[in-house]
Specification:
Elements (H helix, E strand, L loop, with lengths): L6 H31 L18 E5 L5 H13 L5 E2 L11 H7 L7 H9 E5 L6 H12 L2
Antiparallel strand pairs: 1-3, 2-3
């Protein structure tokens, strides 16, 4: 299909652009609050945030632990916290069936991508997300 924006879409986009800088600052601040309050013994928290306005709160286990992974996911579900495993992009794409057919077991040569695939998640980060909700999430995760 050849889809082109029309005038109505352009008006909506221009209106959204007015809030872009503010929304990016809020997302950056949210991510900083999240990473600062996570238990650095359990989760990786030393991400470079310079120039970042991440649409997600990045959650990554420090150690390879399938039991802990399952506990994290169960707990997030119990608290109705929406998440996606594998960070943005779904983790190691070489593990996906469409690429496994082409590249076989090549995914085994990328241990960091595999760690993110199996022990990483992203949780939505949006401008209206309240600091108290981020702190509550950190408390839940740190208690595991």
């Amino acid at each position: 299909y050849n889809m082109r924006n029309n005038e109505i879409n352009a008006v909506m986009a221009l209106n959204q652009l007015k809030r872009l800088s503010k929304n990016n600052r809020v997302r950056s601040r949210n991510l900083g609050v999240f990473l600062k309050n996570l238990d650095a013994e359990k989760y990786i928290t030393d991400f470079n945030q310079a120039g970042n306005s991440n649409y997600a709160l990045t959650l990554l286990l420090k150690k390879k632990d399938f039991n802990m992974r399952d506990v994290v996911e169960k707990t997030l579900r119990e608290h109705t916290i929406e998440f996606r495993r594998g960070m943005s992009g779904g983790g190691n794409q070489l593990m996906q069936p469409y690429l496994r057919r082409l590249f076989g077991n090549e995914y085994t040569n990328y241990p960091n991508a595999n760690h993110v695939h199996n022990f990483g998640w992203y949780i939505g980060n949006y401008p209206d997300l309240k600091k108290e909700n981020i702190l509550r999430l950190c408390k839940i995760l740190n208690a595991l």
